[in-house]
Structure formats: structure tokens, C-alpha cells
Amino acid sequence: MSEPQNAAQPEEALSFRAAMDELEGILERIEGEEIDIDRLAEELRRAAVLLDLCRGKIRKAEVEVTQIVQSLEGPEE
To answer: What is the pTM of this model?
Structure first.
């Protein structure tokens, strides 16, 4: 059984893509029944952390994009 590639990286250091890749790996292991039942809870906890990280990055990007669009649509003279 292979270990997640980014398991040792702190969450803040993970990019969105790296977090998604790790989530996909966890999902593949669970769906493929490759995961030992003793590690299932650990994998699911890690997946929850990664999901929160991804959601936070998406929310931050949405705010930034909204601010950029609003600044571009500024008052017309």
C-alpha cells in the first residue's frame, strides 16, 4: 500500500492542485478497496482536512476575482 505523496507537507504549503491530487489518491484507495480498515479513519480525517483547505482556497479566489472585476467596472466618467 502506497503512502500519500503530500502527507508530510503542512496544509498551508499545499497548492490547490496538490491537495486535489492527494484527495483523488485517497478516493482511489477507498474505492479500490486498497485501504486497510485500520487506516480508513486516518485517510478520511486527512480527506476532511484537504477538503476544508480546497474550499478555503476557492472562497479566497472568489473574493479576489470579485474584487478585481469590481475594480475594472469602476465608475465610468
So the answer is: 0.71
